[in-house]
Amino acid sequence: MKTRIEAFIRSCEHETPTESTLDRIQAELFEWQQSNVSNYGRFSQLESNLGCQNPTPVPTPLFQRFRFCAGEAQIVFRTSGTTTGRRGVHAMPDSDVYELSIRTAIQRLPLHIPTENTVSLCPNVAEFPDSSLGHMVATISPHTQHFFSQENGLDAQGCWRFIQANTTPLFLASTALGLADLLATGNTHALPVGSVLMLTGGYKGQKRSIPEEKLHEAAALQLGPHTQLVREYGMTELSSQLWDTGEGYVAPPWLRVYTIDPSTGKRCNGIGQLCFIDLANWGSCMAIETMDLGIVDGNKVELIGRIPGMKARGCSLHIEEWS
Amino acid sequence: MTSVQKAIHKWASMDASLWETGLSPAGARHAQRTAAELIDTSLFRTPDAPPKRLLIWCASNVFTAPLEWVAQFAALGTQVTLKAPSACPTPAEAIAEAFEDFGVIAHRVDHTNALPLIDDCDAVLAFGSDEALQNLEKHLPEHLPRSLHGHRASLAVVRPTSIEETARNIVEDAVLYDGRGCMSPIAVFCLGEAEGLFEAVHDALQEQGQRIPVGQLSAAEGAHSRRRLGVARLTGRALGQTGGATLLIDPQEFEFLALPRILPIHPIQHLDEIAHLYPHPWSSCATNLSPEDVLAFGAHRICKPGELQRPPINRLHDGIDVITTLCE
Q1: What DSSP assignment string belongs to B18-63?
Q2: Are B226 and A265 a contacting pair at CB < 8 A?
Q3: Which of A156, A257, B18, B31 qualifies as a FRET site for A65, CA 20 to 30 Å off?
Q4: Which CA distances in Å does B62 have to B136, B185, B224?
Q5: Cα torsion B187, B229, A47, A304: sign
Q6: Which helix (DSSP H) or strand (DSSP E) does residue A175 occupy?
Q7: Are B59 and A289 in contact (CB < 8 Å)?
Q8: Phi, psi (5° rounding) for residue A49?
């Protein structure tokens, strides 16, 4: 199955597959995972018995409790646990398809990323081997040497010194929080033409929060107008990401996205709970129900935010809060 | 018929399905009917010093909750003011309308703007989240009599005897208010073989679901329900889906969480197995065991399955004698 998925993703580098091709490979993988990923087989047994062709999405909080992995896990990514205090685990047999998915998605983007000159404000995979974000940056830029994200925070001044001494196009990979910390110094330096700022993540569990638009405005002001902003949306439980180069988040062909009505779990149009079918999760769990709301239009996604009121309560989730 | 009985009758004859309670039309009417039936005015007490003015701070999860208190205090001549919950104000307004001859009024304001109402009352009865009540209490004058009731839930502890009858009664308790009230069972602990009860509860839940469909779930309730269903699928068994499911699930998977019409059944061999659950703020416990067997849970009320949502009018509420507390 791995070889089949690898070949499929490679075929997407320059062409977009038909829906029927996608349907076929999705059905093959669903059947395969039911036999080979024991927890997913148990989870989706009911729908499978009913002859359902659509893979049943697994709610992301279940990754905090259960492993979905075909065979022995060689790679384990963990969520930050900032929302619930418990860390979700995405275990996979290997990282080959995960990395292929990232590389192929990057190649499909309509811009050049100067990965040869990368500055990272994301976790360094050498220090945080279970960070999927760190692994993603390492896959995009295997030779990144300039990490300014440290265990005790960001080395903002060190990062600025590097940026100011730099004369060639730069790939600055950052979390929203990391960028906010960097810009909070008040320094400015226009990056060379051709530079790319990759921004990912939000402020989950953090006290500090800057509206996204304000952060983008500040970045344009302090890093110069020639820096191309690229936004990434992903999560530990997925092997594939959505990329936004200016026209909204776009999923690659092997990552299907749809919304469900969070109240009923049924597919819906308009604002709904985002669900993904990620073929690159061949060895773990292909169908994921996120705790995020969004609007889906084809392969484009507009993010709305987290499902409100997810904090569980004893008596009722409806009891009125102090306002 | 007394004036209070007439007011209750007037309220009961209104169409609760129009009150945007979040329940289905049949669910809202069922809850309305049940609440009205439970008020036995012959059991009303006559304390010496009822408050002249009572403020009732209402929560949105059990829309009928203020009725019994409005009826009792109206009968005592108390001027009752209702702070209607912002999320669902119409039911409180309906109570005020039914009791308009007693001068009952309802205010549709948020918490902050409702605070001045405290200045015009002699006692406060409040329901809501623990946080909301803590915040409210900060604004109450020290001397003001109050009875504040935070979030609680109920449970059932049963032996699998008379399985179908037990299942029907458990489901009747769970279906009212779609399981959101403090007297709704959030878990059923079954001593011994639980498979039979699990299947009987599922059948009864589906049957009741036809008669009284589930209402609107919030996004979070839906997402939590699917998560709970997933846990049950991976560790036990699950029948049904969001808005109507029965789970057969290890007691270690217990969660103090109310989800609309999601009924977890936890098989146990001995009550000691669930001793760690005793400290939860239980409101009531339904059991077909001896009441002494479940005392350790600390539930303020022990009753038979099917009676959880049908408390007697003169009970202690969360262990508190509300009438005495507010009539100091």
Answers
A1: GS--SS-HHHHHHHHHHHHHH--GGG----SS--SEEEEE--SS-T
A2: yes
A3: A257
A4: 19, 14, 20
A5: positive
A6: strand A171-175
A7: no
A8: -65, -30
CB A214 within 8 A of CB A244: no
- ipTM of the complex as predicted: 0.87
Q: In which element (H, E) is residue B142 found?
A: none
Q: In the structure encoding, which two tokens stand for residue B217, read together? A: 């779930």
Q: Which of chain A's residues have a Cβ under 8 Å away from the Cβ of B224?
A: 310, 312, 317
Q: Which residues on A lie below 8 Å from B112 (Cβ)?
A: 323
What is the mean predicted confidence (pLDDT) over B298-315? 92
All domains of chain B, ordered by start, with CATH? 3-151 (3.40.605.10), 153-303 (3.40.309.10)
Chain B, nearest residue to A56 by Cα: B230
Note the CATH architecture for domain A99-233. 3-Layer(aba) Sandwich (3.40)
Tokens for B72? 């009792």
Distances in Å between the alpha carbon of B34 and those of A288, B37, B149?
41, 5, 21
The residue type of B62 is: V
Q: How many CA atoms lie less than 13 Å away from B264 in the CB half-sphere?
A: 28
What is the C-alpha to C-alpha distance for residues A273 and A279, in angstroms, rounded to an integer?
20
Q: What are the residues facing B151 on neighbouring strands? A: none
- Give percent above pLDDT 70 in chain A: 89
**Delimiting residues of CATH 3.40.50.980 domain(s) in chain A:** 99-233
Q: Is B220–A315 a contact, with Cβ atoms under 8 angstroms apart?
A: no
* Nearest-CA distance A70 → chain B (Å): 16
Could you tell me the sign of the dihedral formed by the alpha carbons of B193, B196, B199, B201, in that order?
negative
Which residues in chain A are closer than 8 Å to B258, comparing Cβ atoms? 313-317
